[in-house]
Design goal:
- This protein has 503 residues and is an alpha/beta fold.
- Helices cover 19% and strands 31% of the residues.
- Helix 1 packs across helix 2.
- The longest helix is centred in the middle third of the chain and has 21 residues.
- It starts with a strand and ends in a 24-residue tail after the last strand.
- Bound molecules: uridine-diphosphate-N-acetylglucosamine (UD1) and magnesium ion.
Length: 503
């Protein structure tokens, strides 16, 4: 889209923004067949986080640079892009996405050279790395503003670098500043090219920059590879800008998490834990009581009302909403669910909504678990009880319905106050098609019954325990199919013959 955070004087107030994401590198240290940028962090691919940021910042176009496993990365990027657009603000038209192939990979500057034909000179380019997933949207916006501020002074946005102050600058490019005028940036020197004095510099380049596209094009086209690694360094655009009299600005942050890259499984795990701890922290700040912030995983978004309590080892996936006073017991896995006020989810419960748009719904004051399994399409009304070893799929349980032990409810509608007995099941599948079972309000389904769908059990009816029901029944009826009991008095059980061993 168009950027004009402030009323800026100069060559037009608004500038379109294009985002380039570098994702051609091999990721050797991951030792994995899966391309590095497709490994997941907080339930989303590394590249997914970056694409999400590009969509959220209202880019006009996103250009992803691929190289290693380009087909896999491109397909992955396309589906992550669709996902990001679905989740993004509806008010923004989605950006375009294009791909630039970089073969072979001759450095970050060479990567950007491949992206240039996809970019037009009328705007700004924001450069991001596919393996740096946690840069905050606010930070990126500030960096763009930093670039645009210069437009007021001299009609051209500046080259703006995101830098980090860190006690451990090892491995990063160091920011070189004019000793007499420290606000003047002179260049970036890579770790491998730096002299011992330069290596002491604690301000480093994060890999994120914003530049006016027109000038970026001339700068990257004039790069050379005369350096310690024989690569075309993108970071050399800084001296190109300085040499041609362009302003170079910096935005400095001090939170290393925002610019931490992933190179190895250990770094991925470290970043995952840090991300999860941060999420736990912000949930607790909102008032959520988490038993152990070191033992919670949110792989998506978790929205909580007040007085929510979460015990240890809960995993939340996709979009989960917990209403006021909801309690989640230990070791629950909950994905795409809307759990309403006062509901209790007991230990070891597994809840799996099909998608963000079609969550499992658990009504107010319901009690689910321990050891319950709610599959896609499960919709529970208020004060429903679902107990241990009960599986519910594509079914509605109206208020006050109960299935407390060892049951399967699939493709069914249970009316208010239905009691679905222990060991009862709906036989919803005839080997070819699925059929529905309708159980009207106040029905009692006896233990160990099989309800062979399709059928309707009329209101207030009763199914005798152990029955196999194949036909519907009228309201109020008792249906029973078990054989009549016979009792033989004084029955003597068979005995073992002499000399035989028991087997
Ligand atoms: C780069 C910066 C360094 C900075 C650091 C921050 C350069 C020369 N150096 O170094 O100053 O401190 O990032 O993390 O830019 N890539 C390609 N094609 C290539 C090479 C890399 O697409 O030919 C991609 C990688 O997949 C990765 C990103 O560019 O996503 C950064 O590359 P990487 O090799 O990690 O650069 P660094 O050496 O870390
Ligand atoms: Mg790197």
């Amino acid at each position: 889209m168009f950027y004009g955070f402030k009323k800026l004087k100069g060559i037009g107030d608004m500038l379109p923004l294009d985002v380039v994401i570098m994702a051609a590198g091999k990721g050797t240290r991951m030792k994995s067949k899966i391309p590095k940028v497709l490994h997941t962090l907080g339930g989303n691919a590394l590249l997914g986080h970056v694409i999400q940021a590009a969509v959220a910042i209202s880019a006009r176009k996103i250009v992803v640079i691929t190289g290693h496993e380009s087909e896999l990365v491109q397909n992955g990027a396309l589906s992550l892009f669709k996902q990001a657009c679905l989740q993004g603000e509806q008010s923004n038209p989605p950006p375009e996405i294009e791909f630039a192939l970089q073969m072979p990979q001759l450095g970050t500057g060479h990567a950007i050279q491949q992206a240039m034909p996809h970019l037009t000179d009328d705007g700004l380019t924001l450069i991001l790395s596919g393996d740096v997933p946690l840069t905050k949207l606010e930070t990126l916006k500030c960096l763009i503003e930093t670039s645009l501020e210069n437009k007021q002074v001299n009609t051209t946005p500046s080259l703006a670098l995101l830098t980090l102050q860190t006690a451990n600058p090892f491995g990063y490019g160091r920011i070189l500043r004019d000793t007499l005028q420290p606000q003047r940036v002179l260049g970036i020197v890579e770790e491998k090219d730096a002299n011992p004095e330069q290596r002491l510099i604690t301000e480093v380049y994060t890999g994120v920059l914003v530049a006016p596209t027109q000038y970026l094009r001339t700068w990257v086209n004039s790069l050379d590879n005369k350096n310690a690694q024989g690569e075309y360094y993108l970071t050399d655009v800084v001296t190109k800008a300085v040499d041609t009299g362009h302003a170079v600005k910096t935005l400095t942050i001090d939170n290393p998490l925002e610019v931490m890259g992933v190179n190895s499984p250990a770094q991925l795990a470290e970043l995952e834990r840090t991300l999860q701890l941060n999420t736990a922290q912000s949930l607790m700040e909102q008032g959520v009581r988490i038993k152990d912030p070191g033992r919670i995983d949110v792989r998506g978004t978790l929205n909580c009302a007040e007085d929510v309590e979460i015990d240890i080892n809960a995993v939340f996936i996709g979009s989960v909403t917990l209403g006021r006073g909801v309690r989640v017991g230990p070791n629950c896995v909950i994905s795409n669910a809307q759990i309403e006020e006062g509901a209790l989810i007991e230990a070891y419960t597994h809840i799996e909504g099909a998608s963000i748009k079609t969550p499992v719904i658990i009504g107010a004051n319901s009690r689910v678990g321990p050891f319950a399994r709610l599959r896609p399409g499960a919709m529970l009304g208020t004060e429903v009880h679902v107990g241990n070893f009960v599986e519910i799929k594509n079914s509605t349980l109206a208020s006050g319905a109960k299935a407390n032990h060892l049951a399967y409810v699939g493709d069914a509608e249970l009316g208010e106050r239905v009691n679905f007995g222990a060991g009862a099941i709906t036989a919803n599948y005839d080997g070819a098609n699925k059929h529905r079972t309708v159980i009207e309000h106040d029905v009692h389904v006896g233990s160990n019954s099989v309800l062979v769908a399709p059928l309707t059990i009329g209101a207030s009816g009763t199914i005798g325990a152990g029955s196999t029901i194949t036909k519907g029944s009228e309201p109020g009826a008792l249906s029973i199919t078990r054989a009549k009991q016979i009792s033989i008095p004084n029955w003597s059980r068979p005995r073992k013959s002499e000399g035989k061993k028991s087997g």
